[in-house]
Specification:
The protein contains no helices and 30 strands. By secondary structure, it is an all-beta fold.
Length: 351
């Protein structure tokens, strides 16, 4: 099936939800967002692509990874109520892509299973062309069952647009690359080592562009780093826990987002099934855990801010829902406001 929906001509803020079709997910869901309450109303769905676990939106084109062994990306037109596939999926020449981002006229994917990053040039209609470059990571870490080799988990441009950073859970490091916008070539510029065994998963930048925060999956901590865009250099400054002292049982952080004003940071933590609230120092160089709240479901795989910075949306994979929260402007603490059913939800984007 391609896309199904109810009417034509959408406007206002919209949400798009990715899910694991191999675990009962419906594919890519589109929803209208009530700008007063944050409530979501599903308007259509497309199951045209297997396991569209992560999404990126640019204008009227929604990009999705297909997190399969073959590895591919797909594009959808989202001007109607349901996502409409734009051509066939395009191979990424890597296995198990878990993340994608747009930079310098290219679509970038982080390929977890093959430990690589792929660049694909974008055509005039916004769809991806065949890969122009594949940068393969090398290395391993001390956690044998998770770090026997490289596992690229995220790729994104830095705020200056001059660099591409990739976060590798398997090698306990973040790589800084240069992307040639004309040729699509990816060139390794540098690699920053983090503490062995932490398993870095995702990174978010401070809005000032001077600091970055790496969320670790294998230990429930956040590594605060200084970011020097002029040199393309990432320097770890210290770690902060994202679960309270004395927390027992496994905790696997998944996603990190930063407030537009740089005052707060939020992290989703699976196992513990919480959202952590961290206060950031005035210059962004310090992070302090101030509260944790239930995520509204089970296994929060993704977390996103709405465009206004007033709400958070959590994709709870194992409970099969997307829950939204209103943020206290003074404390940053989320309060649950509602939820919709979304089986095997893995990602939410708004725009």
């Amino acid at each position: 099936m391609g896309g199904t929906g109810t009417d034509q001509g959408r406007s206002g803020v919209r949400a798009f939800i990715g899910s694991f079709t191999s675990a009962g997910g419906r594919g890519v869901l589109a929803a209208d967002v009530d700008e007063e309450t944050g409530a979501l109303t599903v308007t259509g769905v497309s199951d045209a692509v297997a396991d569209p676990s992560f999404l990126a939106l640019e204008g009227s084109v929604l990009h999705a990874v297909s997190e399969t062994r073959a590895g591919a990306v797909a594009a959808f037109d989202v001007t109607g109520p349901a996502p409409r596939p734009l051509g066939a999926p395009v191979p990424v020449d890597g296995a198990g892509p878990t993340h994608l981002a747009l930079a310098a006229g290219h679509l970038l994917t982080a390929n977890y299973s093959s430990g690589s990053v792929t660049a694909l040039p974008l055509a005039g209609d916004g769809t991806a062309r065949p890969a122009s470059a594949v940068l393969r990571h090398e290395g391993s870490g001390p956690v044998a069952d998770r770090q026997s080799g490289p596992h690229a988990h995220q790729v994104l441009p830095d705020p200056s647009g001059d660099w591409v950073v990739s976060v590798d859970l398997g090698t306990d490091s973040v790589r800084i690359c240069a992307l040639d916008p004309a040729t699509g070539e990816l060139r390794l510029h540098g690699e920053t080592a983090l503490r062995p065994g932490t398993g870095p998963r995702h990174l978010a930048f401070h809005p000032a562009g001077t600091h970055a925060y790496v969320l670790n999956e294998l230990e429930p901590t956040l590594t605060v780093c200084r970011w020097d865009a002029a040199r393309g250099a990432l320097e770890p400054l210290g770690e902060t826990p994202v679960v309270p002292e004395g927390t027992t049982g496994p905790s696997y952080p998944s996603e990190v987002v930063v407030a537009p004003d740089g005052r707060f940071l939020w992290a989703a933590v699976r196992g513990d099934d919480t959202l952590a609230v961290l206060a950031l120092g005035a210059d962004g160089a310090e992070a302090r855990l101030v509260a944790t709240v239930p995520c509204g479901g089970t296994w929060p795989r993704d977390l996103t801010l709405d465009p206004s910075g007033r709400r958070l949306y959590a994709a709870n994979e194992r409970s099969g829902d997307v829950t939204w929260f209103t943020l206290d402007p003074d404390t940053g603490i989320p309060s649950r406001a509602g939820a919709i059913e979304a089986p095997a939800a893995s990602c939410v984007v708004l725009g």
